[in-house]
Known about the structure:
The complex is a heterodimer.
Chain A: E1 4-11, E2 28-31, H1 37-44, E3 48-56, H2 58-63, H3 67-76, E4 82-85, H4 92-109, E5 112-117, H5 122-127, E6 132-135, H6 143-158, H7 166-169, H8 186-198, E7 228-233, E8 237-239, E9 255-258, E10 270-272, H9 280-284, H10 292-300, E11 306-313, H11 321-337, E12 342-346
Parallel strand pairs in A: 1-3, 1-4, 4-5, 5-6, 7-11, 7-12
Antiparallel strand pairs in A: 2-3, 8-10, 9-11
Helix pairs in contact in A: 1-6, 3-4
Chain B: E1 3-7, H1 10-15, E2 20-23, H2 38-56, E3 64-65
Parallel strand pairs in B: 1-2, 2-3
Amino acid sequence: MSTIRVVHYLNQFFVGLGAEEHAGIGPAKKLGALGPGIALQQALGEGAQIVATVYCGDNYANEQANAIDAALELVSGERPDILIAGPAFASGRYGLACGELCVRAQNALGIVAVTGMHPNNPGTDLYRTKVHIARTRESAVGMGDALKIMARLALKLYFREPLGAPQEEGYIPTGRRVHFVAEQTAALRAVEMLVKKMSGQPYATEWAVPSYSQVDPAAPLEDLSHAKIALVTTGGVVPRGNPDRLESAYASKWLKYPIGELNELKPSDWQSIHGGFDTTNVNEDPDRMAPLDALRELEREGVFQDLADELYTTTGNTAAIPTVRRFAQEMLKELRASNVQGVILTSA
Amino acid sequence: MPVAYLTTLDGLARSVGAPRIVRGKAITNVAGDPNLRPSDELALRKELIAKALKALTTPVSEPTAFD
């Protein structure tokens, strides 16, 4: 049997060129295994050989439009059977480069591709459904284990051996559902889990609750009396008739409406189209959701200096987290441009 | 940028890590109360917003409720 050809992708740091000062170097290739590739070769065993190492600076890989194309061409030139990228641990730029290169290698070259990342790597969210990602520790202290998992995954995929569950095989869940017949009914399993939980024993959930990335609290306002404040709501408050057709759930957009000349939100002019609660009370008086009247009085009393001239609004229920994260980033950009210093956010 | 979050689902806000939380009146009227006379309702609303403004000026290191 001929030897399986493997190409290994690394960033500038792991090929030994240097850290951030070399993050701008473009894609290049060296023959054979380099850096962590030496241990990867051992993990792969004799049947597979790292024929080349392709590398690229993390900045270059993320900033230059053609960087991944160029790296892919270097990979392709080796006619490999397998691409192994990283592991990138928790390094964001490195993870994004590894994920994108693996996806392209799978799609364009039709080869097996595997990478490795910590679950907090932003590349994990983006690529875990598209490529097998070995679950690693946050930093290179986890190198040894990561390389072994990546080697094992790559060979199993290459030989088309069925993969076990993510926690058994050491990869990050891909979102695929695999059917199997459980030995016990759901009721029995649930009670068993509950008993273990209540008696402090370790147990494994069958459906993990999504975890939300933690946001570091912003520094407080130093001088409220000179601050400009904006009113933001996810309560679906819009001009009556909903002229811009904000969705009542699964919002695809956020909107802003001028309130600079208004002292309150009149029910004849405003309403809530939120689909997640009974809007009767809000539609009697939209200030109950977007409290403009109270903010105006406090502004007049000098508690804070100025209310932003626009109401920022969307619908929060059943929102997709990546979508609303984008909303927040887009709003923040505009709020900063309007010199807003603090936000009152309201929802149900 | 500091954000004070007025919501009646304060437990949920806490569990997803919102740093500055003010508990609203009710899900269907977070910043009001249809049972009150209009002047009293406005006073309630001002009180809630005043709490939120105070939250904006207060340093926090973890999800914190302002009452």
